[in-house]
């Protein structure tokens, strides 16, 4: 029932071949369009259940970036019609609308963020965030010279993607190991990061290491700017839900031979080595100076007003099986 290309997209998201909250959202919406295009459903209800099943498959891939369920909701809410032909057309049209909104949102967000960057500023980045880099791109287009200290971001080294993109734009890059961040903060004018989810209290969920960087930045007096489209606002947190932090496989941290070497003396019956690999962490609002969105910039404590405006009607799970 779920088309093989949807299964492929789901696998790519789960294995981080497709990664980053905005990119994941775009891929998920595109997968639902494929499901609609390729559906051979012989009734409107069968078509609707196919799209719900595809959305459930995509939803179960990664739990932390709210852009994924927000994208799935957006598309399924646009599915309407009394025939398969009309239902298919509504899904295709809704995905195209979603993609256009993503493009405009990231560009507008970039302009808001660029206004906070001065000519000659140095930013420190963590992980790879297309929302964050849209601010740098807009600043460069405004004729500002920007340089960057890029944290490699263990264990998957997404900082290399950021470094490559910045070099393509002609931005001078200093690549550092994550543990060197505090040392370089004295040479930095802004910490500039993205977000996977933003909670109603202004907490920012982003790649593991963001919270430590924000604490160090506050101690060093460096402002922390979080670039996040409103797609990253997590509506379930309006009603007290917490954001699940994805725990990824130890193989991203330790190879099997490294594990065997470390645990060489272990009693196989009583293995004492545990490797934990949380993929994200939570930065409290007190360490965030501004949340930059396509709707403007907000101090973290007031992001809830925007969240209520956009998502106040509460959230549903339109992908749930219908009884
Ligand atoms: O934490 C990550 C990516 O984690 P992973 O590599 O595990 O997906 C990014 O900072 C956010 O997703 C924002 O990215 P964007 O601004 O592109 O949405």
TrEMBL record:
EC numbers on record: 5.3.1.29
GO terms (BP aspect): pentose catabolic process
Q: Which domain of life is it from?
A: Archaea
SUPFAM superfamilies, A to Z: NagB/RpiA/CoA transferase-like
Q: Where do the coiled-coil regions begin and end?
A: 88-115
According to the UniProt entry, its GO molecular function terms are: ribose 1,5-bisphosphate isomerase activity
Entry binding sites for substrate: 19-22, 62, 206-207, 232
Keyword annotations from UniProtKB, A to Z: Carbohydrate metabolism, Coiled coil, Isomerase
Reactions the enzyme catalyzes: alpha-D-ribose 1,5-bisphosphate = D-ribulose 1,5-bisphosphate
| Record-linked InterPro entries | IF-2B-related, IF_2B-like_C, Initiation_fac_2B_a/b/d, M1Pi_N, NagB/RpiA_transferase-like, R15Pi
Q: Which residues form the active site?
A: 127, 196
- Tell me, what does this protein do in biology? Catalyzes the isomerization of ribose 1,5-bisphosphate (R15P) to ribulose 1,5-bisphosphate (RuBP).
In its miscellaneous comment, the UniProt entry states: Reaction proceeds via a cis-phosphoenolate intermediate.
- Please report which protein family the annotation says this sequence is part of: Belongs to the eIF-2B alpha/beta/delta subunits family. R15P isomerase subfamily.
Any idea what this protein is called? Ribose 1,5-bisphosphate isomerase
Per the UniProt record, the lineage of the source organism begins with: Archaea, Methanobacteriati, Methanobacteriota, Stenosarchaea group, Halobacteria
């Amino acid at each position: 029932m779920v088309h093989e290309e949807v299964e492929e997209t789901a696998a790519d998201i789960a294995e981080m071949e497709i990664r980053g909250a905005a990119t994941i959202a775009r891929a998920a919406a595109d997968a639902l369009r494929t499901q609609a295009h390729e559906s051979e459903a012989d009734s409107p209800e069968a078509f609707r259940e196919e799209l719900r099943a595809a959305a459930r498959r995509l939803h179960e891939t990664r739990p932390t970036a709210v852009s994924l369920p927000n994208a799935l909701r957006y598309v399924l809410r646009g599915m309407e019609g009394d025939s398969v032909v009309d239902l298919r057309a509504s899904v295709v049209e809704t995905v195209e609308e979603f993609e256009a909104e993503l493009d405009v949102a990231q560009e507008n967000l970039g302009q808001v963020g660029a206004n906070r960057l001065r000519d000659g500023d140095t930013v420190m980045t963590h992980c790879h965030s297309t929302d964050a880099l849209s601010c740098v791109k807009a600043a460069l287009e405004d004729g500002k010279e920007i340089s960057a200290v890029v944290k490699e971001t263990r264990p998957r080294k997404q900082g290399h993607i950021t470094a490559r993109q910045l070099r393509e734009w002609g931005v001078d890059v200093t690549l550092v190991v994550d543990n060197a961040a505090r040392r370089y903060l004295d040479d930095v004018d802004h910490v500039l990061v993205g977000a996977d989810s933003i909670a109603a209290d202004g907490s920012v969920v982003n790649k593991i290491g963001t919270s430590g960087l924000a604490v160090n930045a506050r101690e060093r007096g460096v402002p922390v700017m979080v670039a996040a489209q409103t797609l990253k606002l997590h509506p379930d947190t309006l009603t007290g839900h917490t954001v699940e932090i994805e725990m990824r496989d130890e193989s991203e941290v330790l190879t099997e031979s490294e594990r065997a070497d470390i645990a060489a003396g272990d009693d196989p019956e009583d293995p004492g080595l545990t490797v934990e690999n949380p993929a994200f962490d939570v930065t409290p609002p007190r360490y965030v100076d501004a949340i930059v969105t396509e709707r403007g910039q907000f101090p973290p404590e007031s992001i809830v007003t925007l969240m209520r405006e956009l998502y106040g009607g509460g959230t549903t799970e339109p992908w749930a099986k219908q009884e």
